[in-house]
């Protein structure tokens, strides 16, 4: 096996390394695979929801099957999160993928983010009759949950 590796190394010409080449393992900022500001925002949301749930990084890492350093890189926005991994993270945190990817400002707790989404949608309704209907529906649903009249 060592002879094969040595033969392959001899048969391949050495590739020149530019002086400004990035360190091995790090993507250049101008490459398509480099993390973006959106990747960083997703990582911040993951961390916020994990902390709001009181979940240690090691527990989330174990639940989704990655190392603690890899999970840290996701949260810091140093590594892009694949869609399948994002789905697993959302499930482990008990939130929707949209909660991790939406442009809703992170408030520190998943329920607060949902309230913000609801408030934005409600504010977009211009007709008072429709607003009142939505309020009546919410009260009815809350009453059904708590068992008390609306």
UniProtKB/TrEMBL annotation:
Gene3D superfamilies: lambda repressor-like DNA-binding domains. Residues 1-45 are annotated as: Disordered. InterPro entries: Cro/C1-type_HTH (IPR001387), Lambda_DNA-bd_dom_sf (IPR010982). Residues 13-26 have a biased composition (Low complexity). Residues 46-100 form the HTH cro/C1-type domain. Residues 27-36 have a biased composition (Basic and acidic residues). CDD domains: HTH_XRE. This is Helix-turn-helix domain-containing protein. The lineage of its organism: Bacteria, Pseudomonadati, Pseudomonadota, Alphaproteobacteria, Acetobacterales.
């Amino acid at each position: 096996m060592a002879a094969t590796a040595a033969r392959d190394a001899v048969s391949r010409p050495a590739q020149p390394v530019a002086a400004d080449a990035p360190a091995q393992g790090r993507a250049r900022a101008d490459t398509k695979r480099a993390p973006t500001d959106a990747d960083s925002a997703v990582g911040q949301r993951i961390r916020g929801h994990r902390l709001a749930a009181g979940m240690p990084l090691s527990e989330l890492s174990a639940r989704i099957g990655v190392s603690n350093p890899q999970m840290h890189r996701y949260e810091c926005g140093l590594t892009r999160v694949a869609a399948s991994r994002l789905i697993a993270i959302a499930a482990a945190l008990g939130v929707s993928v949209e909660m991790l990817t939406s442009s809703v400002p992170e408030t520190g707790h998943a329920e607060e983010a949902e309230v913000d989404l609801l408030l934005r949608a409600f504010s977009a309704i211009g007709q008072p009759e429709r607003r009142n209907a939505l309020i009546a529906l919410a009260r009815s649903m809350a009453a059904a949950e708590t068992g008390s009249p609306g």
